[in-house]
Amino acid sequence: MKLIYSIHKYDVFMFVWLNNIAIHSTLAWFARYISKTGDGLLYIALGGWLFIGYGADDKLLQCLLLGFAFERPTYFALKNGFKRHRPQQALQNFRSLITPSDHFSFPSGHTSAACMVATLLAYFYPPLTAALYAWTAMVGFSRVILGVHFPTDTAMGALLGFATAVFSLNLLGL
């Protein structure tokens, strides 16, 4: 329990520091736009483009569908199992900049989905790897800046996304 408390204490410290730095208002403006890229619409558009352009036999499309088939239920099970309160509920006198879709923060679903998609795209298109992981990091960072996640929520979301991407690649024998 001492380790969990220490991690939580550090997590709160980093969260409060990030949300109190002088450039927070500038970061918040940018974070709103970056966060929206992880809302899911781009993933649906990507899947539709792959299906229309390459058909149902496309390996990337199959990996994405399989990845989401495992990632989303795992994410929901973890979120509802841990029931970690979002910063607005956990910290006195703090208000997030956006209204989250649910009450719990661990792990970050935006970061998980972004990391899974980035990992799969990077596997099939290696020259895009740096840009894809930079985008994933910005999605996770944006969720902290917007006040809806603690840093470890996004770190564990990234781990979940990466693991489900690797799992789907391995399951399809790629």
Q: What would your notes on this structure say?
A:
With 174 residues, the protein is mainly alpha-helical. The protein has one domain: Vanadium-containing Chloroperoxidase, domain 2 (Orthogonal Bundle), CATH 1.10.606. It is 72% helix and 0% strand. The protein has helices at 2-18, 24-36, 41-54, 59-82, 87-90, 109-124, 129-145, 151-171. The chain is globular and about 50 Å long.
Write the layout of secondary structure elements.
Blueprint lengths: L1 H17 L5 H13 L4 H14 L4 H24 L4 H4 L18 H16 L4 H17 L5 H21 L3
Helix pairs in contact: 2-7, 4-6, 4-8, 6-7, 6-8, 7-8
How large is the radius of gyration? 17 Å
Poorly predicted tracts of residues: none
| Alpha carbon gap, first and last residue | 40 Å
Q: How much of the residues is beta strand, in percent?
A: under 5%
- Please report the first level of CATH classification, the CATH class: Mainly Alpha
What is the percent of helical residues? over 70%
Strand-and-helix sequence, N→C?
Answer: HHHHHHHH
Would you summarize the structure shown here?
By secondary structure, the protein is mainly alpha-helical. The protein is 72% helix and 0% strand. It has one domain (2-171): Vanadium-containing Chloroperoxidase, domain 2.
